[in-house]
Amino acid sequence: MHFDLFTLGVIGAAIGIAISISFTLLGLVLRGLPALRIWATAFWVITAAALTQGLNENGSLLSTVVGGGLIAVANALMLMGIAIHLRYPLRWRWPLAVVGLFVACQVHVYLSPPTQTVSALMFGGYSVVWDAWMVWVLMWRSPRDMRNTCGFTALIFIIDALFYLLRSVVVLFPQLFAHSPLDELLTTWNYLFGILSSFLLSTGFTLMLAERLTLDLRRLARTDGLTGLLNRNALIEAGERLVEACRARGQACSVLMFDLDHFKSINDNWGHAAGDAVLSHFVGVIRGTGLAREALFARYGGEEFMLVLPAIAPAAADALAERMRAAVAAEPALFEGRSIDITTSVGVATAGDANFEQLVNAADVALYRAKHQGRNQVAWNPAA
């Protein structure tokens, strides 16, 4: 079966328009995904490239420079969309520099047309560079929990790179492959493969978007929206695992429960926006004291916070609680240019053979004692 370049361009444009419209409409619904808008733009650019090259196949300025340049821009957009989606800090200037180099080469090809062999090798080389760059970002710069969909998308780019490498071998050694089934297959599938790649890439990007949304929803379900800390449900789940691990190793585990003193009066006198600012400030102060990587810090509810510290001695937990209490008292919160003095009461419970619920109850008893004794102090439950 043989299709002329014009026919393939029309087929590619039709499929490209369908994919572009789908991604554009999806972007209108999922507004919080910037990569989606970039990929939609990339597919529109690919569609324009297919039309440009399909309307003129004689090596003109339109097909060589404009069409080739549009393909380079589409690759740059796909790469940046991947980087943004994976939150990898890739600067726009690097892909744009490669686009500029490619366009400059295409201008040279138009002004001084090389042999068909050289032209095919050049285009294949460009394609492999873009493919390798995107595979590197997808496989080595993606979060662990997104490796499945990134691996699928990377596989598409790997197959694309292998296709152009194989095509380059056939072009380099025409005497070995002339009129062979492989030569005829690659010639027929040269543009059909581009159309198929666009369809598979749209599938890969859609899967990546779905996985990102799923992960974000799971994170939101476990996170307090104001402070970014674990919420109560997530804390209980993680805390039970952490305490049980300490018990299995015979290590002590501590729970520190914080309560912001007179928080209701802050809301009443300053407003709820000020209260939110105070809560965020408190979290920043506690984090600034230097939390261990394995520690669990969470918002337990309202103005109450909890810190779970594995493998720590009672004296060390008590000293840390006192240091945190002093840091909070020493750093007023700022709201609209005014400072708000805040203090916290802390209840501490430490044990090596208690479960998480028992530790939390013991810390709660200690916190009640600290508040009853005048607030802005640390109380330790010796019975825990």
UniProtKB/TrEMBL annotation:
UniProt xrefs under SMART domains: GGDEF
A Pfam family matched in the record: GGDEF
Enzyme class: transferase
Catalytic activity: 2 GTP = 3',3'-c-di-GMP + 2 diphosphate
Keywords: Membrane, Transmembrane, Transmembrane helix
Bilayer-crossing regions: 6-29, 36-55, 61-82, 94-111, 117-140, 152-177, 189-210
Any one GO BP annotation for this protein: negative regulation of bacterial-type flagellum-dependent cell motility
Residue ranges occupied by any GGDEF domain in the UniProt entry: 251-383
Protein's UniProt name: diguanylate cyclase
Species the sequence originates in: Rhodanobacter denitrificans
Higher taxonomy: Bacteria, Pseudomonadati, Pseudomonadota, Gammaproteobacteria, Lysobacterales
